[in-house]
Amino acid sequence: MPSTPTLLIYLHSPSSPSVVPSDPPSLTGVAGMYALNSQALATCTAPPALPKPELEFRVNDEKVHPSLLLEPLVQLNNATKLYSVSQTLRLRTTLSVARRGYVIVRCSASVRDLYWKNSEVKLNVDVPEQFRQRPEFHLFGDAAMPTSSPVFLIFLMTSSFALRF
Question: What residues does CATH 2.60.40.10 cover in the chain?
Answer without folding.
Answer: 7-133
